Amino acid sequence: MTQKLVIIGAGMASGRVIEQLLDADPSAYDITLFNAEPRGNYNRIMLSPVLSGDKTYEDIVTHSDDWYEQNGVTCRFGEHVVKFDRELKVVEGENGHVPYDKLIIATGSAPFIIPVPGHDLPGVITYRDLDDTNAMIEAAAKGGKAVVIGGGLLGLEAAAGLSERGMDVTVLHLMGHLMERQLDEAAGYLLREDLEARGITVKTQASTKAILGEGRAGAVLLESGETLGADLVVMAVGIRPETRLANDAHLTVARGIEVNAQMQTSDPDIYAVGECVEFDGHLFGLVAPLYDQAKVLADSLLDQPNAFAVKELATKLKVTGCDLFSAGDFAEGDGREDIVFRDPARGIYKRLVIEDDRLVGAVMYGDTADGSWFFGLIQGGTDISRMRETLIFGPAFQGGASADPLSAVAALPPEAEICGCNGVCKGQITSAIEGGATDLGAIRAQTKASASCGTCTGLVEQLLSVTLGDDYAVPQAQPVCGCTSHTHEDVRRLIKSQELKSQAAVWQELGWTTPNGCHVCRPAVNYYLLADWPLEYRDDPQSRFVNERKHANIQKDGTFSVVPRMWGGITTPDELRAIADAADKYDVPTVKVTGGQRIDLLGVKGEDLPGIWSDLNRAGLVSGHAYSKGLRTVKTCVGTDHCRFGTQDSTGLGIKLEQHLWGSWTPHKLKLAVSGCPRNCAEATCKDIGVVCVDSGYEIHVGGAAGMEIKGTELLCKVESEDEAIEVISAMTQIYRENAKYLDRIYKWLAKVGLDWIKEQIVDDLENRKALADRFTLSQSIYRKDPWAEHAQDSTTRVQYAPLANLTLEAAE
Amino acid sequence: MSWIDIGHISDIPLHGARVVKTPVGCVALFRTGEAEVLAADDRCPHKGGPLSEGIVHGQSVTCPLHNWVFDLNTGVAQGADAGRIETYPLHIKAGRLLIDGAAVGKRSAA
Ligand SMILES: Cc1cc2nc3c(=O)[nH]c(=O)nc-3n(C[C@H](O)[C@H](O)[C@H](O)COP(=O)(O)OP(=O)(O)OC[C@H]3O[C@@H](n4cnc5c(N)ncnc54)[C@H](O)[C@@H]3O)c2cc1C
Ligand code: SF4
Ligand code: FES
After folding, report:
1. Chain A residue with minimal CA distance to B108?
2. B85 falls in which pLDDT band (50, 70, 90)?
3. Which of A44, A259, A603, A717 is the most buried (most CB within 10 A)?
4. What is the pLDDT of residue A41?
């Protein structure tokens, strides 16, 4: 029987637990996932590249909304769990209770805040999540001075990012050298040199006394009496396990929530994983052991024997230009010997710590290429007595191998760990390559190597070239799918330039390697063809995902949901009666009001679709395309009709827009809204296209999003009349239809082409605007029609919804 | 074997599918080519997705719920996913589709 699993915290540890569980047995648990952050799982360790501007949030999302939906995980994001009751076995979130059979606590840790006076002033930020990162990015945009308290991994990554963004940064560190837990003094010194060379001031043995400021942080006062000006203060002095819920529920908690080797807490139905746990006296602050824990926890939940054990860890700093590596235990001690190599001219330092002919620790700065090889020797407990003399020069000098850079990788034993985050060793990667994984993407998908912090990407690529030889060329861009080597952009361009007007032409002329594509490329190519050749190409329902073929949303139990259109959110008692009658007649189990101002009938059987559609059609209701990559809704407020603030007839314009745009196919879904005044009750500024009415006309905004990603729109232009607004919006829709990559929402596409380009095309160039709007209207002459009526009335289509034959009935005859 | 006539090939759209209800459950008929139809279970072993609603490509189908891909000749799931669906013998004679009654759980009429 499916058991209820509730998880508190959607972080890196629980994310991996869910993946492991779904991989092993997707039907064992019905999962509910709480997260205090208003989003799902992302790669927290990549926040530093986001801070420095090398990556965006989208790049580091590990589980998208779609992923959760497809895997049936119930998400309660943006909701704190307040407590849980072990007797009643329920978890209490801010918005209600959820019962559990098994519970996982994965609350991570909370940044430690030194309780000096002024620590709670605005302008003092910790570094833990996306909101912190965005707050730093925002503060950095204003320039000025930043003081980072804490010279560990997190503090230095924050300092480097802020300095990259143009701030004048000082790092305060309590100890004598930076990253003292991972580096010895010599390496700490080289690191400091590098940071200072890029303009970051480092103060060691600096103890903070207070943060000064009136209403907002303005300076940091040190015990020494020195005052440092600070427009932004980042506190990165350490973390402590987030154990509050466990404490309140009287689980056994030391520094972290205590767990056994099966990740079970003192209550056998409650597990804990990640930075919030304590195991055998150990706390955890890096992802590699958390992923081991996650695997063990998933096995425990499925009654598979497995046990967690603490392993040696390796650390890298994700600051470009600061190449450091540290692993194992490098404290000096009796019976321990050091081998040291220095090259002051090139700023290289390497130190190996040896005990009983085994390598027990390694610290390197400046040249860390051999890091994983050394780490492998530490983990494997390899006897190094025979290579002792040359050990420090790395694998290339062992066994007479040449000094070719690739030979170092080639020399690694199969059990050498390549990806520390995910515990993937060389053997797993080479066998994946031999099994046909010939690029980075495939290796990430199959082994997870290089899929977390990415520091081993270079090694994985070297392994690819060692294993594949000349067959491996570092790939340029991702092809659409395995059927072709062309990218989406190439395919779009070639369809236009070579005038390819059928799927067969695309397969043939562009050299597809499969007879007729696959579920990934066919929907994209079908869309490109119909968008570019509305008159010549005919939409192919068999190249559409079931929802768009059946004009209803498939649900997890195979039933469908039916959403009729309510133009601009306006309805009538007659329409409501027709909807109510249909719900009764077809035993619709759930009737729900949607966020797009209309009504969803959920749980309709596939065979009943044509019937319910005819009934709804009779009352004048048509398909709401709630399932399509096309126009969904135009949300409106009541505007001048009823509202005392309204400046224009927002409802009327919404209805006109919806009637003009409905039925059109777009690269991804398209949601609009029209608000009657800047109070913006229709939330127009988080839609793909939004209109905000003002006294003097209509502001047209584009590129908003309010799903997993929350994004405000950007102002495209302001126009004076409704007609102009409709023309601009048609042109905007068309330019998006003609150019974007399939499955890119407007905001994603906008980030690639830039708002300025769009302004040039449809705001400044009136002729082009008109031509685009005309092409849109032409396409609409084919596609603006009700698919429900078509399917329900055409007898050949209608029968497709019923079984071809029923062999169970005959038996009874 | 006992062959039962269940319809005409043109009842199934090219690269589409239709379902036949049988004593062993719903069987999906996939029209993989102009003159080629392959029969297999309609139910995905992953989470019961209706395979007849999936996208048919080559001699495979992709489940509409979570994109598992099945080879319709062998019934075996492709790629990293492990699972198998039952396949059933099917004949096309002058455009008529004949399914093996015994294989889908019908006792022979004789
Ligand atoms: C900037 C940065 C850089 C890092 N770099 C590295 C690196 O290079 N290498 C490395 O190995 N590690 C790195 N780490 C550490 C790594 O990110 C953590 O070890 C890991 O994310 C911990 O995973 P977790 O699942 O235990 O906790 P988290 O990922 O923190 O997830 C816990 C989640 O639980 C939620 N939560 C807490 N309480 C509640 C509640 N009551 N109700 C609901 N939800 C709740 C939180 O909002 C959070 O989203 C870095 C960390 C940061 C912040
Ligand atoms: S957006 Fe303005 S006009 Fe529309 S309902 Fe709100 S306050 Fe009234
Ligand atoms: S039900 Fe078929 S892939 Fe999940």
Report:
1. A811
2. very high
3. A259
4. 96
Q: DSSP letter for A564, please.
A: B
Q: What is the pLDDT of residue A140?
A: 94
Ligand 3 atom nearest to CA at B48: 1
d(CA A592, CA A563): 10
Contact B20 A804 (CB under 8 A): yes
User: For chain A (length 813 residues), average pLDDT per consecutive 10?
Assistant: 93 95 93 96 93 90 93 96 96 96 97 94 95 96 95 94 94 91 84 90 93 94 94 95 96 96 97 97 92 95 94 81 85 77 78 90 87 86 83 69 57 76 83 86 82 71 80 68 86 88 88 86 96 93 93 88 96 96 96 94 93 95 95 95 92 97 96 96 96 96 88 95 97 96 92 88 95 96 93 85 81 43
For chain B, what is the largest distance between any 2 Cα atoms, rounded to a whole number of angstroms? Answer: 45
Residue A297: per-residue pLDDT? 97
Task: Tell me the CA–centroid distance for residue A32 and ligand 1, in Å.
Answer: 19
**pLDDT at residue A118 in the model:** 95
The alpha-carbon gap from A34 to the nearest alpha carbon of chain B, in Å, equals 23
What percent of chain B has pLDDT above 90?
61
Q: How far is A804 from chain B, CA to nearest CA, in Å?
A: 5
Determine the Cα–Cα distance for residues A740 and B59; give it in Å rounded to an integer. 31
> How far does CA A719 lie from the centroid of its chain?
36
A670 CA distance to ligand 3 middle (Å): 27
User: Which residues does ligand 3 sit against, CB inside 6 Å?
Assistant: B 44, 46-49, 63, 65-66, 68
Alpha helix ranges (H) inside A643-765 = 650-661, 722-739, 746-753, 755-759
Beta strand pairing call for A96-99 and A90-93: antiparallel
Ligand closest to Cα of B61 equals 3
- Parallel/antiparallel/unpaired status of strands A219-222 and A227-229: antiparallel
Strand partners, A111: A239
Strand A3-8 and strand A102-105: pairing? parallel
Q: E strands within A207-357? A: 208-212, 219-222, 227-229, 232-235, 239-241, 257-258, 270-272, 277-278, 314-316, 324-328, 336-343, 348-355
Phi, psi (deg, nearest 5) at residue B36: -135, 125
Residue A108 half-sphere exposure, CB side, CA atoms within 13 Å?
A: 22
- Chain B residues whose CB is inside 8 A of the A517 CB are 57
Distance CA A216, CA A124 (A): 8
Closest residue in A to B55 (Cα) is A519
- CA of A636, nearest ligand number: 2
- Listed in order, strand segments (DSSP E) in A95-183 are 96-99, 102-105, 109-111, 124-126, 145-149, 168-172
Contact A542/B22, CB-based, under 8 Å?
no
Task: Please tell me which residue of chain B has the smallest CA distance to A514.
Answer: B58
Distance A573 CA to ligand 2 centre (A): 24
pLDDT of residue A439: 83
Nearest CA to ligand 2 atom 2: A677
Atom of ligand 3 nearest to the CA of B66: 3
> From ligand 1's centre to the CA of A12, what distance in Å?
6
Atom of ligand 3 nearest to the CA of A70: 4
Residue A175 · residue A153 · CB < 8 Å: no
Task: Report the share of chain B in percent with pLDDT over 70.
Answer: 95
Can you tell me the distance from the alpha carbon of A480 to that of A742, in angstroms, rounded to the nearest whole number?
A: 10
